[in-house]
Amino acid sequence: MTWKETAAQVAILPQTNIVEIQRELNAYPNAVVDPAIYVEKARLAAKALMSVLDTKKRKVFFNGVQYMSVEDWVLLGKFDGCTAKVESTEYIEIAGHYGFKAIATAIDKAGIIRSKGEAYCLNDEENWSERNKYEWHYKLKAGGTCKENRPASELVWQPNPNKPGKTMPAKERVLVGVEKVPLFQMASKAQTTACAKALRNIFSYVAVLAGCSATPAEEMVGFTPDGHDDIDKPEMNTEESTNNTEQRSIGYQETKAGRVQPAGLDKLKMSMGLTK
Cα–Cα distance between 89 and 84 in angstroms, integer? Predict the structure, then answer.
């Protein structure tokens, strides 16, 4: 069956529901499908993805370009009935460095492997050998902080958000040194990156249509997952974009809504009805 015969039989293009589009595609698994059908499906997926990314409280930007973290790739995979699965995690040593290698696959509802991703996390990677160590210290009325509790008269007090009308000692996060990154965190980083890569191999075109980079945020040097950020490097995980000069130098431009996207992509998105 040719794609023209399939398109005529499926009559899918007038539809705007991604669930209905997927149902029709599943009905003809061996047919050569009209490319316009996949374009329509990608258009709807990108539009839905944009609506989610625009509401994220913590957006990941590098050089003014938005990157999708693993939870965004997992959501994108769900649009097509896919999810990521860690197949293996192995401790390794390479050229005097140590860390973990992880392999993950992207599988569909039928359990069929659609893609595979391999990732490493070694102690030669920025933020994954040693990182700043912080402690919470009590704030003192006389100035400064202390780790040990002091008499109430020496401490700064503040309202207790969990107990209205009550107060609690004020504390401050203090840098006290550096510490080695725990091995379990390195293993988790390798697994997370492998999962993102497996899904990226299938759905990167949708990410690009949504105005994002096709590279998962976890693959970028300097990125650390939520909860392990280096607060001395806020530019690595911030919603603020760089200046227009930097954006143009790497072939990106800023839209009216402030979204940064590859130059020339706006025309393609407009033709597909993806512009807001």
Answer: 14
Task: Inform me whether the pLDDT recorded for 91 exceeds 90.
Answer: yes
CA-wise closest residue to 118 among 191, 21, 218: 191
Pair 103, 88: CB distance under 8 Å? yes
Q: How far apart are CA 122 and CA 171, in angstroms?
A: 34
Q: Residue 195: which residues within 8 A CB-CB, separation 6 or more?
A: 70, 73, 74, 84, 85, 86, 104, 117
Strand partners, 106: 84, 115
* Helix, strand, coil in percent for the chain, rounding step 5: 35, 25, 40
pLDDT in tens, 111-158: 999 999 999 999 999 889 998 999 999 999 999 999 988 899 999 999
Cα 127 to Cα 8, 41, 120, distances in angstroms: 55, 39, 14
Question: What is the helix (H) or strand (E) element at residue 262, kind and residue range?
Answer: strand 260-262
Q: Answer for the pair 103, 85: CB distance below 8 angstroms, yes or no.
A: no
Q: How many residues does the chain have?
A: 276
- Could you read off the pLDDT of 18-34 as tens digits, one per residue? 666 666 666 766 666 67
User: Which of 86, 110, 114 is closest to 100 using CA atoms?
Assistant: 86
Query: Which class for 128: exposed (0-12), middle (13-18), buried (19 or more C-beta within 10 A)?
Result: buried
Cα separation of 76 and 216, whole Å? 12
Token readout for 38 is 């996949």
Query: Domain locations in the chain?
Result: 34-129+181-271, 131-178
Tokens of 40: 């329509």
| The two structure tokens encoding residue 191 | 């697994």
In this structure, are residues 259 and 65 in contact, taking their beta carbons and an 8 Å threshold?
A: no
Question: pTM of this prediction?
Answer: 0.66
E strand map for 45-110: 60-62, 65-67, 83-94, 97-107
